[in-house]
Specification:
The protein is of the alpha+beta class and 57 residues long. It contains three helices and three strands. The chain is 44% helix and 21% strand.
């Protein structure tokens, strides 16, 4: 099964963006999130879309 979400730290590692910028993008609606308890998870597809990577699933 492919990974559907990742943590904020996972987004940081995958993109090289800082945490402040990641939360900015979330607040602007450019990254889609899911709340699970206190955790904020980012949908991997929205990362592909943001970076316009053609391999988006």
């Amino acid at each position: 099964m492919e990974q559907l979400t990742t943590s904020i730290d996972g987004v940081k590692k995958a993109t090289g963006l800082g945490i402040t910028k990641i939360y900015e993008l979330i607040n602007e609606g450019k990254l889609d999130t899911v709340k699970v308890g206190k955790r904020t998870l980012v949908k991997v597809k929205s990362i592909y879309r943001l970076l316009e990577i053609s391999d988006a699933k």
